[in-house]
Design a protein that fits this description.
This protein is α+β, with helices and mostly antiparallel strands. The chain has 2 domains: 102 residues, Ribosomal Protein L22, Chain A (Alpha-Beta Complex), CATH 3.90.470.20; 100 residues, 4'-phosphopantetheinyl transferase domain (Ribosomal Protein L22, Chain A, Alpha-Beta Complex), CATH 3.90.470. The protein has 6 helices and 11 strands. The two termini are 32 Å apart.
Amino acid sequence: MPVFFQQQINESTRLGIWKIEESEEFFKGNVPLHREVTHPHKRLQHLAGRFLLRYLFPDFPYELIKIADTRKPYIPDARYQFSISHCADFAAVIVSTTHRVGIDIEVPVPTIFTIRNKFLSEEEQEIFRINEGEPDFGRLTELWSAKEAVFKWYGLGGVDFRGHTQLKGFNSDGTLDCFFAKEETHLPISVARFEQIVLAYTITN
């Protein structure tokens, strides 16, 4: 099985990344398709993400998943908090029985530098030295992915990436410090680079 990465974050929270190498039939035999997804590759990503939920927590109740108006999947009784991300041939999931969670994966591409002003304030660009030397597409993708993870953690939409998710630098433990203005709280965001993708996730009580 192509589990690309797996982590037990704490006793109630697990994270996994799946490299999609299977056919759609493999996933359909294990996972119900909850909504119509017409694009074949997006449908494969959708199925792989749902497959990961039960891979991490075997009793995860697929049948209870609902989709909010903001497109965030959730379970009404909040038995599980979870977040899903897809990118290229990868699907990533974080699931917890006790914590609010958000996850994002991205493939670094050069175009991230051309849109940096859309999601990073001038202060953030100074903190992370974005405009000094050659562009670091990996670092920029980490910052974008971190803000996406916060967006998914929040789950209610209406987030201004420049104004509401303010990255303040790195904490002593290597996590990113994000001040989320909509809830006036600081969030620690874990980031990691792999050969093909960048991962960011956040968990809070």
